[in-house]
Amino acid sequence: MSPRTALIIVGVLLLQLAFIWSYVAAFHRPASSGVPVAVVVPDALAPQVLHGLNTLPGTPISATRSPSLAAAEQDLLDRRVQAIFLPSATGTTDHLVVQSASGPAGAEAMTTVFTRIGDSLHRSLVVTDRAPPVKGDEHSLTSFYLVIGWCVGGYLLASILGMSFGSRPANLRRATIRLGCIAVYGVVSGLLGALLVGPVLHALPDAGSLWWIGALVVFTTGTVSMALQVAFGTLGLGLTILLFVVLGNSSAGGPYPWALLPTFWRDIGPWLPNGVGVDAVRAAAYLGGASIGRDIAVLLVTSAVGIAVIYLVVGVARRSLVKLPGDDRAFVDADPEPVAAP
After folding, report:
1. pLDDT 10s digits, 83-93
2. What SS3 string covers 21-48?
3. N or C: which end of the chain has fewer CB within 10 A?
4. How far is CA 271 from the centre of its chain?
């Protein structure tokens, strides 16, 4: 066995262990710690209620006062808070507003916390779900699996193109053609994925806007994967798996909103295409498109960075005619300039 083969085997083992660690660490013990909650309460009760909520054992929630119910509901749809608490000033029945479209585990966790608070104070709680998933998507997982499928398509296509024609295109023209293939594939696969979960399976509404979200998710993952291969060659395949499979899928949350994930996954999820795509699909399908602009902006910027890396590395390699670390084979100009006859 050659040293290179041994290193590849060790790399595969490390990726495997990283996969197990990432998923188990992210999902095995989701906990409500410092989960943001908006409180709509009269002035006279505000200090007492906020102090009581923010000093609960284990600090499961972080309560802040909202100026109005309308403002609190907008924060709920924008995913800035996980619940709205409305304590009664005259009776013993309080109200809790949640939205389970972003992950039913978040709504369930908040319901459990406030139910226990009410039980300890001999008060009752009425829970309203502001944005429940549709029938057939009760656990709000369709968006998660849909985006995972789109991401898999994006990085597999980039990997197949790299293995078939070389990790690094021979020149800028061929890099542009390869990016064009990824873009066309993104549009087609985005449409077909939206049709599958919409008209075919009736698992998500609003298939029209999902089409273009899917196209952008596929293009982003494909572009970043291509950039990693262009820059690092075969090693780029491992980095692609690390980024999108090991870290991206687990930090996307699945049934758990970001607020219930451990700090590391909670922090990276909103910046990786997997998590951004899931958030965008849920926003389009269930939340009236609230804050979807941020998700689209992250995908566009990420794609632009990937394209910039591709053109920069290919351009440098072509000008220098030097075999860089990412090259899997000797530099060959596939489109040579015509040579004039003597």
Report:
1. 999 999 888 99
2. HHHHHHHCCCCCCCEEEEECCCCCCHHH
3. C
4. 7
Same domain, 173 and 47: no
Q: What does the pLDDT look like over 219-272, one tens digit per residue?
A: 999 999 999 999 999 899 999 999 999 999 999 988 888 888 888 999 999 999
On whether both 73 and 213 belong to a single domain, the answer is no
CA–CA separation, 25 and 199 (whole Å): 36
Query: Residue 238 is encoded by which pair of tokens?
Result: 């491992």
pTM of full prediction above 0.85: yes
Structure tokens given for 216: 């952008």
Residues 146 and 264 in one domain: yes
Quick one: DSSP state of residue 11?
H
Q: How many domains in the chain?
A: 2
Residue with token string 């064009």: 180
Spatial separation of the C-alpha atoms in residues 16 and 7, rounded to whole Å = 14
Starting at the edge strand found earlier in the chain, the sheet holding 61-65 runs 61-65, 35-39, 83-86, 93-98, 124-129
Element containing residue 95 per DSSP (H, E): strand 93-98
Asked, for residue 14, whether it belongs to a domain, the answer is no
Tens digits of residue pLDDT in 272-288: 999 999 999 999 999 98
Q: Rounded CA gap, 130 and 172, in Å?
A: 50
Residue 41 shares a structural domain with residue 157: no
Q: Which position has the token pair 């029209």?
A: 208
**154 in the same domain as 303:** yes
Q: How many CB atoms lie within 10 A of CB 41?
A: 20
What is the predicted pLDDT for the residue at 208? 75
**Reported confidence tier of residue 108, pLDDT bands at 50, 70, 90:** very high
What is the rounded distance in angstroms from the CA atom of residue 248 to the CA atom of residue 241?
Answer: 9
Question: 285 lies in which domain range?
Answer: 142-320
Percent of the chain with pLDDT over 70: 92
Query: Which DSSP state fits 317?
Result: H
Residues 169 and 259 in one domain: yes
Query: In the structure encoding, which two tokens stand for residue 175, read together?
Result: 């890099």
Residue 124: helix, strand or coil by DSSP?
A: strand
With bands split at pLDDT 50, 70 and 90, how would you rate the model's confidence at 3? confident
